[in-house]
Amino acid sequence: MKFILSAIFILTAFIKLSAQDFVVKNNDEVIRGTIKGTDYYSVYISENDEKDVFLLAKDVKNFFWNGNSFLSKGFANGKNFEYRFVKVIEMGKVNLYAFGGGMLTPQVKQKKVRFSPSVGIGTGTGGFGGMGMGGGISIGGGRNSAPEPPAGAPVVRYFIEKPGTGPLQEVPMKAITDEDKKAGVKAILIQKLGDKPAVKANIESSTEFNSRDVINLVKAYNSN
Fold first, then answer.
1. Angle, nearest 10°, between helix axes 211-223 and 197-205?
2. Cα separation of 29 and 44, whole Å?
3. Contact 122, 82 (CB under 8 A)
4. Which pTM was predicted?
5. From the CA atom positions of the chain, what is the Rg in Å?
């Protein structure tokens, strides 16, 4: 009976630990606790639910939050190079990521931090077919200054990656892909997935190219 209780205790502790949020920094240091949000340029975690830590994407390898994995990836933005977090949708021979989708970082209470980060995202030139996005972090001091909530990323953008064949490439799909974007999505999929005849045939016979359709095509490619 004692053995069974001990086994249950160990199993419960393992499940609790494995389900905990965590951040892996570039130096492989692991920070565990409760992630309070991300604006895709930074992540905000309560370390061991005791101390709040604010980390930029350039200083982080990846993090795990609410059952989802996020990676820090480099993006060209004009003449600059910046890091952003992307949510992992599918990984394998071909990887599919999502960026943005709304406000994921809560407003930080001023009494808990000495500065208030705010991140702005705006479209610009350069990077992925002229759809580059720029983010800036401003730090304002003073006890009376009110923190500004980060703007977040209002639109979900998808990126595909086939390791060894070049950088990330944006896929202009949506939950319901615009009619004038379907040909472009199809061309990208043929380029990345077309070396498998069965998958290529499915791409060629497809007509909608909505995000769910594309995700299923990538999953089919990775499963063979």
1. 170
2. 16
3. no
4. 0.70
5. 20
**Type of residue at 28:** D
pLDDT digits (tens, 9 = 90+) for 4-47: 444 444 444 444 445 589 999 999 999 999 999 998 999 999 99
Tell me the β-bridge partners of 99.
157
More confident residue, 123 or 44: 44
158 φ, ψ (degrees, to nearest 5): -115, 145
Q: Are 159 and 178 in contact (CB under 8 A)?
A: no
Structure tokens at 197: 């005849």
The count of residues in the chain is 224
**Backbone dihedral angles phi then psi of residue 178, each to the nearest 5 degrees:** -60, 145
b/e code 58-90 from CB counts within 10 Å (16+ = b):
eebebbbbeeeebbbbebebeeeebbbbbbebb
